[in-house]
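Quick one: structure tokens for this chain, please?
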Amino acid sequence: MPTDSAKPEIGCLKVSSKSSPASVAGAIAGMIKDGSVVEIQAVGAGAVNQAVKAIAISRGFLSPIGIEIVCVPAFADIVIDGEYRTAIRFGVERRAPHGAPAATATPAPAAKADEPRAALA
């Protein structure tokens, strides 16, 4: 578990439309239990669907042991095989107890509002 002065590690999971939500949820839960902040990246509607299901399932794994999580979605412009694509990134981390400061992980940079976005495929 990180100390107050140390930033938590960030683990990145790439999710596809064929990913098993339960398997991804297990990975999320394990990383959260270890004190990491999890970043999930998904490109396309099917992948985003699987990622959201995995986050919901992981909450079901963690909530009974007293760990609550929060999810922060953001757009990310990435390059796949030389082609620019727009991904959705979900930052998942422990929810801070009421009155306590939240975990301070460096958020993924969001694209500027005036930049054009590629359509999600």
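Residues 111-121 have pLDDT under 50 and may be disordered.
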